[in-house]
Design a protein that fits this description.
The protein is α+β, with helices and mostly antiparallel strands. It folds into 3 domains: 91 residues, Beta Barrel (OB fold (Dihydrolipoamide Acetyltransferase, E2P)); 317 residues, no CATH class; 82 residues, Beta Barrel (OB fold (Dihydrolipoamide Acetyltransferase, E2P)), CATH 2.40.50.140. Helices cover 29% and strands 25% of the residues. The strands form 8 sheets. Strands 1-6-5-2-3-4 form a 6-stranded mixed beta sheet. Strands 7-14-13-10-9 form a 5-stranded mixed beta sheet. It is globular, with a radius of gyration of 30 Å. The N and C termini lie far apart (92 Å). The N terminus and C terminus are likely disordered.
């Protein structure tokens, strides 16, 4: 039995006064939603045990339980429980030992109360779904549409195609098609399945598992655009100029058949002449035209100006037992940008179509950031003596891109990408179009991922109704789009927080293998408690308290984002490169601790020792 330092004797005395009774948690779904879930690590005690918090930011201090309540629990078991208004302990689930990474995703699910099971009615609707007949749909099965995704993807919800436009009025232009899985065909409005999808708002992508918005029968099967299988789709055909302007667009409800399931890596290699058995037959007819159309779309993007933030995503490599084998940065390929530009074009077309029809829908909006926060980023750049001009409030995007460009070849590149990203307003959903600042677009909707985002499903329904693609004359449905927008914006934020917390646990678990190891890193945060370091290549972030900075009194300079030693004048500033040693890593609290590697003064030791030669005494033989 072990005690934790964070348990104070005063808290022990206080909480022993009231040991609540244990009740088995009921199966009622309504109760489960109404009660907040707590997660604790079980620590055995003489009279029962203590459920200790599972995150350093958890405001709940934990709770003592008696021997009867602790029956069947083992040391370090992860226990999910609730405390209703009566204060009675209600056991929900034992997730297993914290030492196993397989518990981390379940901890994220319960900590954030993520819906993770489907009702029988919802599952029944998904199971009875079938591929529709051609009927009123446009036959797109002869068009060589392809999907391009990551190697581990299972839900292929978008397919693309491009070809040179032979119209002499559009010299150098393109015809492009973006086909998206017709999820609305399988998810009737106000059905049990629709209500489940709304409740989730989006899929949640953890390190080792996906919590889908729709049952797998749809997300990984009927709605997934598998190669050489008929699939229902909602497609947009666009005429694009050589300079990347969308000259016209038209939405069609169709039936398609993907020609191939490609990965980003395959397409990237094919573009650079390294084809394989699949891409060699598609290079000239499919891949090269996609690349050509992408270059035109990129011209338009560069011309209008968008914030050129580059983010690095870390990928965990797992062993068969779920343990972490390694961590690597996910390369940003040009093939990623091909799909990104096609999706942006399709999303713009959807927003403008519904705007022109004055049809109620949901927009993806991104408001202008706070000027003061951006000016602080510019001030930091100047304090680091980066060659940047005075911040231009009238052309914020240009000023931000100037900072990013100046930092690109400096140690501060990743830092400023992160700071500028944090300085932005958070994108959200709204029934009122307010434009998208980051993409510099006047109208933008999410249309391309209805398998994993409820907003896209709403947009699909709006397009079908507004354009009468089902050959029925519709009136705008009286939906609370403001309420829906607020709800799905919230579920998106919750999903991001849950994903980040689970990633932090995996990273802390991985860093336990490297206790005592030395890494190169960058100071990415400076605050009153101390400094935050991010390690090169693997992206692990950890903390060094102020008192461990060195044998000096360090003064915090808020405007310069640094600590300055009063005696030594040693500076620890945001963006500085440092060497650190890993001192602790705790997957329970999601924390990693570092210490600075002290600079050793090089002592010059003379190899040549001074030798005093004794005079040779000559002895006379006489």
């Amino acid at each position: 039995m072990r005690k934790r330092d964070r348990e104070s004797s005063r808290k022990d005395r206080h909480e022993r006064r009231h040991i609540p009774k244990r009740r088995e948690y009921g199966s009622s779904h309504h109760k489960e939603k109404a009660l907040k879930h707590h997660i604790g690590i079980f620590i055995p005690k003489r009279l029962g045990g203590f459920l200790s918090p599972c995150h350093r930011k958890d405001p709940f201090a934990g709770i003592y339980i008696d021997a009867e309540q602790a029956k069947g629990f083992y040391e370090n078991d992860v226990i999910v429980y609730s405390l209703p208004a009566s204060g009675n302990f209600q056991f929900i689930k034992n997730l297993g030992c914290i030492d196993s990474t397989k518990t981390y995703t379940q901890m994220g699910v319960h900590a954030y109360s993520l819906p993770h099971t489907f009702s029988a009615d919802a599952q029944h609707i998904a199971d009875k779904g079938s591929i529709p007949n051609l009927d009123l749909r446009i036959d797109l099965r002869d068009i060589p549409l392809v999907t391009i995704d990551g190697p581990d993807a299972k839900d292929f919800d978008d397919a693309v195609f491009a070809i040179s436009d032979e119209d002499p009025r559009n010299k150098g232009g393109w015809k492009a098609i973006v086909a998206i899985a017709d999820v609305s065909h399988y998810v009737p409005l106000n059905s049990a399945l629709d209500k489940e999808a709304y409740l989730r708002g989006n899929s949640v992508y953890f390190v080792d598992k996906v919590i889908p918005m729709l049952p797998e029968q749809l997300s990984n099967n009927l709605c997934s655009l598998r190669p050489n299988e008929d699939r229902a789709c909602l497609a947009v055909e666009m005429i694009i100029s050589a300079s990347g302007k969308i000259k016209s667009h038209r939405f069609k409800r169709g039936l398609m058949r993907s020609r191939a399931r490609l990965t980003y890596e395959q397409v990237e290699k094919a573009i650079h002449g390294q084809t394989d058995d699949i891409t060699k037959d598609l290079l000239d007819s499919v891949i090269q035209p996609l690349y050509g159309c992408y270059k035109s779309l990129k011209k338009a993007r560069d011309l209008r100006g968008t914030i050129q933030v580059e983010t690095v995503e870390n990928v965990f490599l797992l062993n068969e037992d779920g343990s972490v084998k390694g961590v690597k940065a996910k390369n940003r390929l040009e093939s990623h940008q091909i799909i990104e530009e096609f999706m942006i074009a399709a999303n713009v077309a959807a927003a403008k179509t519904l705007q022109a029809k004055n049809w109620p829908t949901i927009y993806r909006i991104h408001e202008r950031p706070d000027k003061m926060r951006l000016q602080n980023v510019c001030a930091l750049a100047k304090s680091l003596r980066m060659p940047v001009k005075k911040f231009d409030n009238k052309n914020i995007i240009n000023s931000l891109n100037e900072i990013l460009f100046a930092a690109k070849k400096l140690p501060y590149s990743k830092l400023f990408n992160e700071l500028i990203l944090r300085s932005q307003a958070q994108a959200r959903y709204s029934s009122h179009n307010m434009g998208h600042f980051g993409l510099n677009l006047s109208a933008y909707s999410h249309f391309t991922s209805p398998i994993r985002r409820y907003a896209d499903l709403i947009v699909h329904r709006s397009l079908i109704a507004a354009l009468e693609l089902d050959n029925i004359k519709h009136q705008p449905i009286d939906l609370d789009l403001d309420g829906i927008s607020e709800h799905i914006s919230k579920t998106e934020r919750i999903a991001m927080e849950a994903e980040r917390e689970v990633q932090d646990r995996f990273m802390a678990k991985y860093m336990q293998q490297h206790l005592g190891s030395i890494f190169d890193g960058t100071i990415v945060g400076v605050g009153i408690p101390g400094i935050f370091i991010e390690l090169d290549n693997i992206g692990a972030q950890g903390f060094i308290p102020k008192q461990e900075l060195g044998n000096d009194y360090f003064i915090f300079n808020e405007t310069q984002h640094c600590y300055v030693g009063k005696r030594t004048r040693k500076i620890y500033q945001i963006g500085n490169r440092v060497k650190v040693v890993v001192t602790n890593a705790d997957p329970i609290l999601c924390s990693i601790g570092f210490s600075l590697v002290k600079e050793q003064r090089k002592q010059r030791v003379e190899k040549k020792k001074k030798t005093h030669k004794k005079p040779v005494r000559r002895v006379s033989k006489g």
